[in-house]
Design a protein that fits this description.
Elements: E1 10-13, H1 17-27, E2 33-37, H2 43-46, E3 51-54, H3 60-71, E4 78-82, H4 85-93, H5 95-98, E5 102-103, H6 109-116, H7 118-127, E6 135-138, H8 144-147, E7 154-158, H9 163-168, E8 173-175, H10 178-188, E9 195-199, E10 208-215, E11 221-233, E12 239-245, H11 250-264, E13 268-276, E14 283-290, H12 298-302, H13 307-315, E15 330-333, H14 335-344, E16 357-360, H15 369-383
Parallel strand pairs: 1-2, 1-4, 2-3, 4-5, 15-16
Antiparallel strand pairs: 6-9, 7-8, 7-9, 10-11, 10-13, 11-12, 12-15, 13-14
């Protein structure tokens, strides 16, 4: 890997596993990194890479003030990586204050908010003829009548990220009938009324694909990587537990993703998730991740496409690093959630990836502290 020395650090907002992958992707390439989080024991804050700064919050004017104060030590704009949706909203809302101090590659604010909202994205996808399952927005119990027209099973999930919802409920629920939907929504409704119900796409979790991209000026494709989930947690409706590359569909999904982003005027850091329907073999659009890095972003780095580095070099006018696929694909794995998914899923082995080398989301021989604390915390929880 080429190394880049620069007085212009990359600022990573957030300290979770997502941020850890970004810090390692940049720090391992020699880029100076500053990590800001409100938890000094979060994985990225324990990495050997970069300077760590504790901030009171990752959203609102307080965060903006922290960013502006930090930037005063530099005469050029700095690269900014968001890893959480609440941070994206703040950066977009305060873009006028931040734009002279940081590189902000963002679409227009209202378009970004629409892409971050499930129903807003649904409407954009339908308007641009993207293959997407039928979806009904629920804002109250009366809206359940409309959902009866859908073909069950369906998926019930929040219209957008909501931390009160996340504290009590799963990321999403598979519901088998209109009656089951009514019961589930009645329980969720007092906490979060704004939900969507979407027709289920038949297929295993290992048929979920994603395309990670960075788009520059006028939609220039700076970097793109196509991957495949191996397991999700919770199974069927959760986030990535393990994943690998999917070069066999790279051209198709790169084109699909860029075409959609071009149609809606999106630039910057983004990705799209797809599911391949086992009935017709077609890829159906699920949801985008916009203006922030994806949870499993580091899998691209392991497989020769360092998206954060490509974005950093592009925005700073530095020489890009050519993508180079390894001789053999690699697997990225969140150890705990992958084990849970493997056990609950009947211990089914993914034949396409079982012989590949695995990179643990936490463990690195040259950056061990995130893994050490992760293991210590697991032991502590077991005996608490």
């Amino acid at each position: 890997m080429s190394h880049y020395k620069s007085d212009q650090p990359a600022v990573v907002l957030g300290g979770g596993v997502n941020a850890l992958g970004i810090v390692r992707s940049l720090g391992g390439a020699g880029v100076a990194v500053v990590v800001m989080d409100n938890d000094m024991k979060s994985p990225a804050m324990l990495s050997r890479y970069g300077k760590k700064m504790r901030v009171p919050t990752l959203e609102g004017q307080t965060l903006v003030d922290q960013l502006l104060s930090f930037s005063k030590g530099y005469t050029v704009p700095l690269m900014l990586f968001a890893t959480e949706e609440k941070t994206v909203r703040t950066i977009s809302e305060y873009r006028d204050q931040l734009s002279t101090a940081y590189h902000l590659r963002l679409p227009q604010h209202e378009r970004l908010m629409a892409l971050m909202h499930k129903q807003g994205f649904q409407e954009l996808a339908e308007a641009n003829h993207a293959p997407i399952p039928r979806t009904i927005r629920l804002q109250g119990m009366d809206d359940l009548v409309q959902a009866e027209q859908l073909k069950f099973p369906c998926v019930l999930k929040p219209s957008e990220k909501n931390y009160a919802y996340g504290a009590r409920f799963k990321k999403a629920y598979k519901v088998l009938s209109a009656d089951e939907l009514r019961t589930m929504y009645a329980e969720i409704h007092p906490v979060l009324a704004d939900m969507v119900v979407q027709e289920w796409i038949e297929g295993k979790d290992s048929e979920i694909y994603f395309c990670l991209q960075y788009l520059g000026k006028q939609g220039e494709l700076v970097a793109s990587f196509t991957g495949r989930k191996i397991r999700s947690w919770p199974i069927r409706i959760g986030g990535t537990a393990s994943c690998t590359s999917a070069w066999e569909y790279d051209q198709e999904l790169t084109q699909k993703t860029k075409a959609f982003f071009d149609q809606v005027g999106f630039t910057g850091m983004g990705s799209m998730e797809y599911k391949r329907d086992e009935r017709d073999g077609q890829f159906y659009t699920i949801e985008p991740t916009v203006a922030r890095t994806d949870f499993q972003e580091e899998v691209a780095t392991f497989n020769g496409v360092n998206v954060p580095l490509a974005a950093y070099l592009y925005e700073n006018g530095l020489t890009p690093q050519a993508a180079k696929r390894p001789d053999q694909a690699m697997v990225w794995r969140d150890p705990q959630s992958d084990r849970w998914a493997f056990e609950e899923g009947g211990k089914v082995v993914d034949e396409r990836s079982c012989s590949l080398s695995v990179a643990d989301a936490y463990w690195r021989w040259n950056d061990p502290m995130p893994w050490v604390y992760f293991m210590w915390d697991r032991v502590a929880q077991r005996f608490s």
